[in-house]
Write a structure and sequence with these properties.
Blueprint lengths: L2 E9 L4 E9 L6 E2 L1 H7 L3 E10 L6 E14 L2 E9 L7 E3 L1 H6 L2 E4 L4 E4 L1 H8 L1
Parallel strand pairs: 2-7, 3-6
Antiparallel strand pairs: 1-2, 1-5, 3-7, 4-5, 5-6, 8-9
Length: 125
């Protein structure tokens, strides 16, 4: 598991805010706290809640809502769905599903994020 934490601009249907996002290659889904989810967008009910395992052995979490958000890295606009997860220690977690979707690579030596130029070019058109 590898992590990197950076400030990113997030936008939703209700507003925008800079949040510290944890890029976490050990998290399956991208997640956001209920406080910031409700500030940025209207959370949508999941038809069937997700039960996911947590880092604590034998502990599961039931996720009931999600939001769709845009976020920016170096003026590159990206978007994804974020599961609304209570009691997180981070504002936002960008998980593997988002990292793979946008071909994001993490450079821990330089504490930076690398986005495939082909993906960035397709977004900017």
């Amino acid at each position: 598991m590898s992590i990197l934490k950076l400030p990113l601009q997030f936008e939703g249907s209700k507003g925008e805010k800079v949040l510290y996002a944890l890029f976490d290659s050990g998290a399956t889904f991208s997640c956001i706290t209920p406080e910031f989810a409700e500030l940025l967008a209207n959370p949508e009910n999941l038809r069937r809640p997700l039960e996911v395992a947590t880092a604590a052995a034998g502990t599961y979490l039931k996720i009931m809502h999600r939001v769709s958000l845009d976020f920016y890295y170096n003026d590159i606009r990206l978007s994804d769905e974020f599961m609304v997860v209570p009691n997180m220690s981070e504002d936002v977690i960008l998980g593997v599903s988002t990292l793979q979707k946008w071909r994001i690579k993490l450079d821990f030596e330089h504490d930076t994020v690398i986005i495939d130029p082909k993906v960035a070019k397709a977004i900017l058109k």
